[in-house]
Amino acid sequence: MTVTLAEIRETPLSVDEVLGCVTDPRAGGICLFIGTVRDHDHGSAVADLDYSAHPQAADTARALAQRLAGDGRSVRIAVVHRVGHLEVGDIAVVVGVSAEHRGEAFEVCRELIDEFKATIPIWKHQHFGDGRDEWVGLP
Predict the structure, then answer these.
(1) pLDDT digits over 21-68, tens only?
(2) Cβ distance 71 to 79 under 8 Å?
(3) Residue range of the domain that includes 13
(4) Is 62 domain-assigned?
(5) pTM of the shown model
(6) Between helices 102-119 and 57-69, what is the axis angle to 10°?
(7) Is residue 139 part of a domain?
(8) How many domains does the chain have?
(9) Alpha-carbon gap, residue 109 to 98, rounded angstroms
(10) Exposure of 69 in the CB half-sphere (CA atoms within 13 A)
């Protein structure tokens, strides 16, 4: 069970990179989650947003991925989140999990993205079309 990628980046993310990181001959199933910037939130049009992260966010993400890898359900795990300025449609996060069977790949992928969003210190500053803004995820 291997964590092949756990990073926070300022550059655009690659789904192909994450897929390559979790591909393994032992795996019978690969599950990918791709989170993108949507054009609305709370009924308001989103113009764009900025993500910022605590300096230890990548270490925390790696620890989470290693904990999930340690339970033996997966073969390979990868997670990468983007910070900086993003436009509507940009990829914000990519999670990949391979496992011997599809069920475990789905389960671990969902657990990883759900726990990642709930616990990793990354904050979103949304800018709405009407000029308002909102911070999401602050402690």
Answers:
(1) 999 999 999 999 999 999 999 899 999 999 999 999 999 999 999 999
(2) no
(3) 2-134
(4) yes
(5) 0.95
(6) 150
(7) no
(8) 1
(9) 9
(10) 21
